[in-house]
């Protein structure tokens, strides 16, 4: 379901937010590049991480976290988006969203998506007690999420209009479900 405030003459887009994690970042970007009508929202850390990993973002519009009041969230009130994807989502971002904190672009997007009845799909980085993750310069590292990180992922799974996925296949499948729902 799209925003009830949507102007029916404007085609709705997918909003995709990236946080400051390299965990499956390459794979997320690969999915983004297969999509049409997608706008990218970058946290301050995401802009740094993309540069660290040597990735370029070449999709629709790109919004960066450069304003204290997260000005781009007004686009949700205008009905521009049918869905929000946050992938990858760091443990910091998940913790803030679980606590209802919306103090940056990505957490504000999540809050406003919920307030405008726009479904969110989250790919949380910390979903298992032990993970392998890509670090800069193609290094693979072992990561051991803390108990609180795993608890926060479990909590956010219970939030309304929120789907949490744990792998790229599920992320892609959920995006395709949303895309079909809005045709």
Descriptive report:
The chain is α/β, with parallel strands linked by helices. The protein has a single domain (13-181), classed as Flavin prenyltransferase-like (Rossmann fold, 3-Layer(aba) Sandwich). The protein is 36% helix and 23% strand. It has seven helices and eight strands. The strands form two sheets. Strands 3-2-1-4-5-8 form a six-stranded parallel β-sheet, with helices on both faces. The chain has a two-stranded antiparallel ribbon with strand order 6-7. Strand 2 (38-42), helix 2 and strand 3 form a beta-alpha-beta unit.
Gist?
By secondary structure, this protein is α/β, with parallel strands linked by helices. Helices cover 36% and strands 23% of the residues. The strands form two sheets. Strands 3-2-1-4-5-8 form a six-stranded parallel beta sheet, with helices on both faces.
């Amino acid at each position: 379901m799209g925003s009830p405030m949507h102007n029916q003459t404007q085609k709705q887009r997918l909003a995709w937010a990236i946080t400051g994690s390299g965990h499956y970042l390459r794979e997320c970007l690969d999915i983004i590049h297969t999509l049409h009508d997608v706008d990218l929202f970058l946290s301050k850390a995401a802009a740094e991480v993309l540069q660290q990993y040597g990735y370029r973002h070449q999709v629709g519009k790109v919004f960066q976290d450069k304003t204290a009041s997260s000005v781009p969230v007004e686009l949700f009130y205008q009905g521009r988006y049918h869905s929000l994807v946050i992938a990858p989502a760091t443990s910091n971002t998940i913790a803030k969203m679980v606590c209802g904190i919306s103090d940056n672009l990505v957490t504000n997007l999540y809050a406003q998506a919920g307030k405008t009845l726009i479904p969110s799909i989250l790919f949380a980085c910390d979903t298992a007690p032990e993970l392998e993750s890509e670090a800069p310069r193609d290094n693979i590292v072992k990561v051991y999420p803390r108990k609180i990180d795993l608890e926060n992922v479990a909590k956010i799974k219970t939030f309304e209009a929120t789907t949490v996925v744990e792998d790229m296949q599920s992320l892609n499948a959920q995006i395709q479900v949303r895309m079909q729902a809005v045709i």
